[in-house]
Amino acid sequence: GENVEQHPSTLSVQEGDSAVIKCTYSDSASNYFPWYKQELGKRPQLIIDIRSNVGEKKDQRIAVTLNKTAKHFSLHITETQPEDSAVYFCAASTGGGNNRLAFGKGNQVVVIP
Amino acid sequence: DAGVIQSPRHEVTEMGQEVTLRCKPISGHDYLFWYRQTMMRGLELLIYFNNNVPIDDSGMPEDRFSAKMPNASFSTLKIQPSEPRDSAVYFCASGRGTDTQYFGPGTRLTVL
Q1: Most exposed residue of A91, B42, B44, B62, measured as fewest CB within 10 angstroms of its CB?
Q2: pLDDT score recorded for residue B97
Q3: What percent of chain B has pLDDT over 90?
Q4: Which of the 8 DSSP states describes residue A19?
Q5: How much is the pLDDT for A44?
Q6: Residues B88, B89, B94, B95, CA torsion sign
Q7: Which residue of B50, B101, B107, B108 is the best one to mutate when testing the A interface, meaning the one whose CB has the most A CBs within 10 A?
């Protein structure tokens, strides 16, 4: 089955700097890649997603890039703010009627004021 | 539109007791997922349903765990008998086709 790995496990950044989290996946048939943000004690919430027919997607301060050849995708957060501090999960899905997501272990992002 | 609803939000029980967690998916979603989250294992998929039919229960840890979806608007996850190692946050999520999964607020289970 699909195996998703995230790096680094913990990332500390100064407020205003950029943060980048990278995920790799194993199944070349995967075609849907969402990112979830989970604040302490709360549910995972979708923040951005990308499908395999697109190389990059941006929504205000966050963006996701996809490299299908290398089988990795990355989350970019610019102008980080304290409220960006959370655990971020990447996931991959092969779709095709199988809506199962394989999640990475999560990255703890700490934004230092 | 209401999101995914889970109950109870917190459950404290003693080892050996039966625990039933409940979930109401978003109306119109045809997929329902049960996850378990712990610090050690992260987010684990336990089972998922498509149109009320269980598709993959390979993540269910033991026979003590069972899940049902009697109709499109309700699902249960039951643990009988419960053990301390079952303590975790259990999330229900729903989705439509190959679209995004939306998570419920979770049930924090503590087994003493």
Answers
A1: B62
A2: 73
A3: 82
A4: E
A5: 96
A6: negative
A7: B101
Which stretches of chain A sit within 8 Å of chain B by CB? Answer: 32, 34, 36, 42-46, 49, 89, 93, 95-101, 103, 105-106
> HSE of A85 in the Cβ direction (CA atoms, 13 Å)?
13
Strand partners, A76: A20, A63
Per-residue pLDDT tens digits for A17-73: 999 999 999 988 898 999 999 999 999 999 999 988 888 999 999 999 999 999 999
Contact yes or no for A43 and B42 at CB 8 A: no
Q: B104 is written with which tokens? A: 């419920």
Nearest to B95 by CA among B35, B29, B1: B29
Residue with tokens 């989350």: A75
pLDDT value, residue A54? 82
Q: Is B106 in Cβ contact with A99 (below 8 Å)?
A: no
Asked if B98's CB is within 8 angstroms of A99's CB, the reply is yes
Per the CB < 8 A criterion, the answer to whether B34 and B49 are in contact is no
Inter-chain CB proximity B103 and A99 less than 8 Å = no
User: What confidence tens digit (pLDDT) does each residue in B75-95 have?
Assistant: 999 999 999 999 999 999 999
Which residues in chain A touch residue B50, judged by CB atoms under 8 angstroms apart?
99
